Amino acid sequence: MGASGHRLSRGALPFAIFAGREFELSCMRIRLIPVLALLLLTACSPRDYLTRRLASDLTAASTEFQTPQRFTLQTGIVSNKDYPSPEYLVLQHRDWVSANSAPCPAGITPPPCWDIVLTPSGVETIRTIVSAEEAAKSTIPLPAARRELVAVTGITKQGSAADVEFTWKWVPLNEIGAALYSGDLRYKSIVGFRQYDDGWRMQQGAARSAQSIEDALKNAEPAP
Questions:
Q1: pLDDT digit string (tens) for 141-154?
Q2: Structural class in CATH, domain 46-68+145-222
Q3: What is the largest distance, in Å, between two alpha-carbon atoms of the chain?
Q4: Where are the domains of the chain?
């Protein structure tokens, strides 16, 4: 074949130019698709839609939900108002405390009063939770359990407000917690959400039109 065989004919040249331009436009479209997708994604915040996943994440991450439950063990002379309480009866049944009737000091009412002391087994158990110095005090705050979200069971929306129903349970942190807080029980709470310019947020503190997370946990009911 001669040298002229390597050159495009006059009729093929416009087609080649047209095909090249079409190829360039196709490449531009391919490059524009990810850009447009990115713009669409950045235009929407993950909080713009109150899904069960978002409601679960915001509820479980709230300070009130993550705050562990504490039990304050009071030893020494206590009034009949504090003993026999269900918690102290459980501890006495576990042989962690003992109580004997005692005269009421001035300022402690109503009578009769009780002198609560830790048993040797109670001292050993308490020292696995707090230091020996803390265990020797008459008032011992003990971390007992933490909350665990089980599931968001329903969302009711009305305009920019919503009620989220969820179930949760206690997870004991130690032997004391396991004795006082059952991990088998489920509780139902309803918390209010509100939509703002940056998306949905949970009601915090004193809420006007919906129940805050603090009240939702305080007013929890046993789940069926």
A1: 999 999 999 999 99
A2: alpha beta
A3: 124
A4: 13-40, 46-68+145-222, 76-137
